[in-house]
Amino acid sequence: CDDTCKDPSSWETEFPRCGGLHQSPINIVTRKVHVTNNLPPLIFIGYTDIINITVENKGHSAHFALPPSVRLTGGALPGYYRAAQFHFHWGGKGRPGSEHTIDGERFPMELHIVHIKEPYSSLAEAQHDRAGIALLAFLFEETTDNHPHLDTVIAALGLVQNNGSATVIPNFRLSDIIPPASDLHHYYRYVGSMTTPGCEHAVAWTVFHRTLSISSRQLDAIVKQCRFWTGLPMTDIYRPTQPLDDRIVYSTNSGTTPKSVIHLWNSFCLAVLLTSALTQ
Ligand SMILES: *[C@@H]1O[C@H](CO)[C@@H](O)[C@H](O)[C@H]1NC(C)=O
Ligand SMILES: [Zn+2]
């Protein structure tokens, strides 16, 4: 097993970037985000296609592989991105396990959909581009009702309990587990890193304002499905929040964040900053 399995505080001995600046995840302080009109909606391509996906227990997390027909653009991203995989971060029984926190609040679970910029074909190639990877993050909120499509995912996790085991979910649709695109116009954007080694500093992060629902029954089921490579229960799989350093978190204008008046000149400056941050 690689160092992903060790305690996050020891990652940097083998992966120096993990101890560097501009790491992820972060705590988003809504009072301090820069509200901008320059974050248009993302454009989801192939998200409604019916696909067969392979789920594999990677020893530290379970990855759901996505075909390259699932793509992403828009949202002020510099180009088109191809989906690679999605995975979840969770806590333990009764313990929340999201990676990003909002005003210090940790959510029960977080979904990450990883996309690699075209024409790169791997994380290794994309990591040299500051926006080589586009990561979509969805925070889950505990509800009394079940998430209607999450049981497929839970059942699949039950079939990949041990490191290296894999299964296929037939007839899966990504759009079944996330809200419709029309509900995803509002999000936070910042530039950061992968949250596992090597902590590649190449990620344009999108954290949606809209949360996903999960019942306590589903949450309990998820956290007890898998085991780490060590054989211990796979719980609390999230990296602690990292310092913001000199970064700015941008947000689309919506009711859930404080609205601030932005003059035309300010918007122009933000657009320039954002574009340069993403294309450096
Ligand atoms: C999914 O797998 C089934 C069974 O192997 C196959 O019949 C079907 O064509 C596959 N669907 C897609 C979209 O690839
Ligand atoms: Zn992740």
UniProtKB/TrEMBL annotation:
Q: Where, if anywhere, are coiled coils annotated?
A: none
Recorded catalytic activity of this chain's protein:
hydrogencarbonate + H(+) = CO2 + H2O
Q: Which UniProt keywords apply?
A: Glycoprotein, Lyase, Metal-binding, Signal, Zinc
Q: Name one GO cellular component term.
A: plasma membrane
Please give the cofactor(s) recorded in the UniProt entry for this protein. Zn(2+)
PANTHER family linked: CARBONIC ANHYDRASE (PTHR18952:SF202)
Record's protein name: Carbonic anhydrase
